[in-house]
Structures are given as structure tokens and as C-alpha cells.
Design a protein that fits this description.
This protein is mainly α. The protein has 5 domains: about 5-190, no CATH class; about 205-380, Lysozyme; about 395-455, Membrane-bound Lytic Murein Transglycosylase D, Chain A; about 465-515, Membrane-bound Lytic Murein Transglycosylase D, Chain A (Roll), CATH 3.10.350; about 540-580, Membrane-bound Lytic Murein Transglycosylase D, Chain A (Roll). Helices cover about 45% and strands about 5% of the residues. The chain has helices at about 10-20, 25-30, 95-115, 120-140, 145-160, 170-190, 205-215, 220-230, 235-245, 255-260, 280-285, 300-315, 320-330, 330-340, 360-375, 405-410, 415-420, 445-450, 465, 480-490, 495-500, 545-555, 560-565; strands at about 45, 55-60, 65-70, 395-400, 435-440, 470-475, 515, 540, 575-580. Helix 4 (about 120-140) runs antiparallel to helix 5 and helix 12 (about 300-315) packs across helix 13. The radius of gyration is 32 Å and the shape is globular. The relative contact order is 0.07.
């Protein structure tokens, strides 16, 4: 069996961090330990003082271990194990460029003899010869042959019966590690390209891809065309970011199948934005999320996070189609699927296709179908001419909390324009802290001239609620002071201290839950929500409204609103009519 293990190295390295808790010394003292079939990256150097014909390998920790080198003169090269020296058994080793087929043929003969004779030490020695030969093939530019010889070496290493020869356990593991080092180096060089570190994603065509193409040609046709049109807003910047990171530019079409390039697309799993990050993954890759901002909806910041995630997945799996599957369903699901197959190698995504969740199994074919259509739209019956143009913008800094509507009026632009530039603002309001606001190009001078006159935003709670003694809760964060919190909620330090029975020093700690009383006196410049209620007691839901906010506005509770409106859930949509008084 040909192992093709170079595609699996990243996964094996990742598994090591999860599985290996024993040091090499522990392994040597306990031959009963069965090491997982994993190959970490390590460096291999020659130490002529370590013993006769030994290679000292540095791997998982500070411990060192050895592998015997074939031939009476041992390993010649101080940097890495080289082709065995001339000996009586091997009087002349031809140069790879001159007679490499003969050379590897001789090793194959030796390997067959070793397998037939059942000599475990000979198997390891022959495997090491293959590893050494791969170095010469690599130096000669023959990467395929280098990989092939490493595949053969690994196959021989796995055939060694360490139960009958427990003294060879450490040699077997060290040789496996040495093989890993070569594979990782060759694999990295193999994917080096002019525009990045990875080759293009293979355009596979099979029945699964054809089925997705037909879906795009049929019921999803208009969605496909509309998404392509929207892609013009972001695709150039995404490609440039991928190119700078050394990733395939084809990955720029992932948002097409993730979200149809909709910045506010929200899935049932609460994944949000064009790259569809769930909150935990977004947080892991630096996307901020609080009451005011959700950077999963920021196309540029979420693209940077997606690139970081894709890089991590590629280091883990080494195959771009498998990376796509892991991006969709999580690396844990893919790792479990691989583990359940009970194999020690992975060729590519199609080895896993039948065992993955249905949505993920479709994800990769849909992506490949998209690439086929984008490469030759006419071939598949598409005319993809119209495309939205990216919007140019400037960035200004603002330190007070203002509504985008007021900023738009001051700049003489529409609210829609400003919202489109700042989709990460959840309430169309800047946060209470310093914020970099995007505004249309050419408007910076206008903004600087009028920023002082832009009214400060106030919480959308009407005067009736404010006078009724309403309150909210706030969890104290690191670095916050009572004064900061009071300013944020348009309250006062005295009233907050009184509501929470704080001493005169107003000492608070991170993680503490504070009760914040809300009061009036927001100032003449403050924007306050007006309860737009008809004479019959009906209210039209506005964008950004929630059932809780509406209940607060009208001094009621969500349960009452659900009952009088026969609502099965708290979900609302803009334009919906609610009865707010019975």
C-alpha cells in the first residue's frame, strides 16, 4: 500500500500535542507503551561522540535518543544523515542524477530480503537508507521520487515487530521522527509558489461536484448571481489578503457558499458574517464582540480571522479540501471521523466524504462547483457581468457615543451608506469608548468640523421608563471604574453606589455584578426613542428592536406582550405590528 503520508503530517503533529504526555525516557523504560502513529517535527543532527554509528535526534523534549546508521562509517554529514558510505556490501553508490533507478532498485531488493528473512533490525536499516536516498532526490529536484522513497521507508518502519524485539522500540520511533522531518521539509518546498506557499486547489470533477453545479444552475441560480454581484464589494481585498498570507486565492470564494457574501448572514448555529464565525471561534481569532460591536460582521477583520484559522487548519491537515471540511464543521469532527476510520494515513477529503455530516459533505463539492463556474461561467450557462464596486472610505476617530443617523445627517450622506461601511455596529451607534469610524471618502474635513455638534446617543428607553425606577445589570470588566460605568449608562457614581450598597471608596472588582439605576436628565442633545403608538395601541417594530426593549418602553414585560400578540417566541422582524396595550 502506498501511504501518501505527506498529506497527513500536519494532522499527526497536531495529534501529538493531544496524545503524548510521556517523555522519551518513560517510553524507553516501558516497552509496553504503544505509541500513537504520529510524527512530530524535529531536528536531526549527527553526534560523533554519541556512540558507534548513531544519530542523535531532538524531538518532543530535552531528552535525546538514537538511531543506528547502516555501514561501517556511520553517518557522514554533520547536518543530516546522508547516503551510507562505501562498504564491502555496497562498494559503490551511484549519484542520484546518474543512476537513481538502479540505486533505489538495490534498496528495494534489500527491503524484500529483509521482509522475507524477518530481520527487524535490517528492516530499520533499510528504511533509513530510503530516508537518506530521499535527501538526494530532493536535492536533485525530484520531489515525487523523494516522497515515494519516504513512503516506502515509513511502510518498512511500521512492519517492524517490536513485540518480539522490544529493544528496537526507540529506534523505530526515532526513525519515524526522522522520516517526519524530511516529509515536512519536502512538503513545504513542494507547495512553494510565486504568489504564496501553497499550490492552487485541485479542480476535482466528480458526481458530487456535478450535483452541486446542477443545484446552482437550478433553484439556486438567482442566489448565485446575486452573491456574485455582491462579491465585488469585498473580493479584491480578500484575494490580496490571501495572497499576502501565501494562501490560495481561490479561497476568496468561500464566503459565496458560507453566506452569499451577506455581512449580516446569521445561521441556525449562530454563525455570523460573510465568513460565518460562531462566537467562540471568532473570539479565538481576535474578533471582538460586546453590546455595541460584533466584528464578525466586519468584512476586513473577519477575513483576517478566517485566514488565521485556515492557516491553522492547513498546518493540521495538509490538504485544502480537508481544510474546507474542517472549517465548516470544526476540526474536532474531522479528527474524530479520521480516528473512527482506524487508518494511519489520509490521502485527501474524499477518503472521508461518506463519514462526514451531510452539510459538511456537501460543503466541499459546493465550493469546487463554485470554482468551476467562476472559471468558465458561459460553459455552465451563466452570464456574470454585473458586479458591485468596492466603496472607498476614510477612517476617523471618535471618542463619544453617537448614533450613526446623526453622523449621516451631519455629513450629508444616507444612513444606509454609513451603516454599510460600519456593519459591525450592532445598534447603529458607536461604542462609549474610542472608535475608528469609517466614513465615505472625502468627508473627513466635514466630520472634523461638525463632530462637536453631533448629539450624544442615549439608551433607547423612553422618559416613562426612566422615571419609573428601571435598572439594568452590568458585569465589571478589568480596568473599569465606577465613573466609567456611570458615564456609559448615563447614570451617576452616587446612585450606583447607593443601589449596590458600596462604601464611600466606591471599590469594585472585575467580575462583580452591579445594579445600574437608570435616570432622566440625558440632556437636550440626547437622542431618545419615541414610542410611536397608534390610537388603537399598536406599535410597529423598528430595526434593532427586541421584545425586551419594547416591553421596557411600555412598562410591561415580555410574557405579557407574547400573550396578547399570540407570539410563540421572542423573535421579531422589522415592520411587524404589535399590540402594546390591551
Amino acid at each position: 500500500m502506498k501511504f501518501h503520508i505527506f498529506r497527513f503530517i500536519g494532522l499527526l503533529v497536531f495529534s501529538l500535542s493531544l496524545s503524548c504526555s510521556h517523555s522519551q525516557n518513560e517510553i524507553q523504560s516501558r516497552p509496553d507503551i504503544q505509541l500513537p502513529k504520529i510524527i512530530p517535527s524535529l531536528s536531526v543532527t549527527i553526534d560523533n561522540n554519541a556512540g558507534d554509528n548513531e544519530v542523535v535526534s531532538e524531538g518532543m523534549d530535552d531528552n535525546t535518543s538514537t538511531v543506528k546508521c547502516p555501514g561501517p562509517n556511520g553517518c557522514q554529514d554533520k547536518e543530516t544523515a546522508d547516503i551510507p558510505a562505501v562498504s564491502e556490501e555496497n562498494p559503490q553508490i551511484p549519484q542520484v542524477g546518474e543512476n537513481n533507478e538502479t540505486f533505489t532498485g538495490d534498496i528495494e531488493d534489500t527491503a524484500e530480503n529483509s521482509e522475507n528473512e524477518g530481520d527487524e533490525q535490517d528492516l530499520l536499516d533499510t528504511a533509513l537508507e530510503f530516508v537518506n536516498a530521499s535527501q538526494e532526490f530532493w536535492a536533485d529536484g525530484n520531489l515525487e521520487k523523494a516522497i515515494e522513497t519516504l513512503d516506502r521507508a515509513y511502510e518498512l518502519v511500521l512492519k517492524v515487530d517490536t513485540e518480539s524485539r522490544p529493544d528496537l522500540i526507540q529506534q523505530q520511533e526515532d526513525l519515524r521522527f526522522m522520516t517526519a522531518k524530511r516529509i515536512l521539509e519536502i512538503y513545504a518546498s513542494r507547495y512553494k509558489a510565486v504568489n504564496g506557499n501553497h499550490r492552487e486547489i485541485p479542480l476535482t470533477m466528480n458526481e458530487h461536484v456535478e450535483l452541486e453545479i446542477k443545484s446552482f444552475q437550478g433553484n439556486e441560480r438567482q442566489f448565485f448571481i446575486d452573491s456574485y454581484k455582491r462579491s465585488g464589494l469585498y473580493i479584491d481585498k480578500i484575494r490580496a489578503s490571501l495572497r499576502d498570507a501565501g494562501l490560495p486565492e481561490e479561497l476568496a470564494w468561500m464566503p459565496h457558499i458560507e453566506s452569499w457574501f451577506k455581512v449580516k448572514a446569521l445561521s441556525r448555529a449562530r454563525a455570523l458574517g460573510i465568513w460565518q464565525f460562531i462566537p467562540s471561534t471568532g473570539y479565538k481569532f481576535g474578533l471582538k464582540r460586546d453590546a455595541w460591536i460584533d466584528e464578525r460582521m466586519d468584512p476586513e477583520k473577519s477575513t483576517a480571522a478566517a485566514i488565521a484559522y485556515l492557516n491553522e487548519l492547513h498546518q493540521m491537515f495538509g490538504d485544502w479540501t480537508t481544510v474546507l471540511a474542517a472549517y465548516n464543521c470544526g476540526e474536532g469532527t474531522v479528527l474524530r471521523t479520521i480516528r473512527n476510520q482506524k487508518i494511519n494515513y489520509l490521502d485527501n477529503f474524499w477518503d472521508l466524504y461518506g463519514q462526514l455530516p451531510r452539510e459538511t459533505a456537501r460543503y466541499v463539492p459546493r465550493f469546487l462547483a463554485t470554482l468551476h463556474i467562476m472559471k468558465d461561467p458561459a460553459k455552465y450557462g451563466f452570464t456574470l457581468d454585473e458586479i458591485d464596486q468596492p466603496v472607498t472610505y476614510e477612517t476617523v476617530s471618535i471618542e463619544k457615543q453617537v448614533p450613526l443617523k446623526a453622523v449621516a445627517e451631519a455629513l450629508g450622506v444616507t444612513l444606509e451608506e454609513l451603516t454599510a461601511l460600519n456593519p459591525e455596529l450592532r445598534l447603529q451607534v458607536t461604542p462609549p469608548s474610542k472608535y475608528s469610524l469609517k466614513i465615505p471618502a472625502g468627508k473627513t474635513d466635514t466630520f472634523l468640523a461638525c463632530v462637536e455638534g453631533i448629539p450624544v446617543w442615549a439608551s433607547p428607553i423612553n422618559d416613562i421608563m426612566l422615571s419609573s425606577g428601571a435598572y439594568v445589570y452590568h458585569r465589571v470588566k478589568n480596568g473599569e471604574t465606577l465613573a466609567n460605568i456611570a458615564k456609559k449608562y448615563h447614570s451617576s457614581t452616587r446612585s450606583i453606589a447607593r443601589a449596590n450598597k458600596l462604601n464611600k471608596k466606591y471599590f469594585i472588582r472585575a467580575g462583580q455584578k452591579l445594579r445600574i439605576p437608570l435616570s432622566g436628565g440625558l440632556g437636550n442633545n440626547a437622542y431618545t426613542a419615541k414610542a410611536d403608538v397608534a390610537a388603537d395601541g399598536k406599535y410597529r417594530v423598528k430595526k434593532g428592536d427586541t421584545l425586551w426593549l419594547i416591553a421596557r418602553k411600555f412598562n410591561t414585560d415580555t410574557k405579557t406582550l407574547q400573550q396578547i400578540n399570540n407570539l410563540r417566541s421572542t423573535y421579531l422582524k422589522a415592520g411587524q405590528i404589535l399590540l402594546v396595550t390591551e
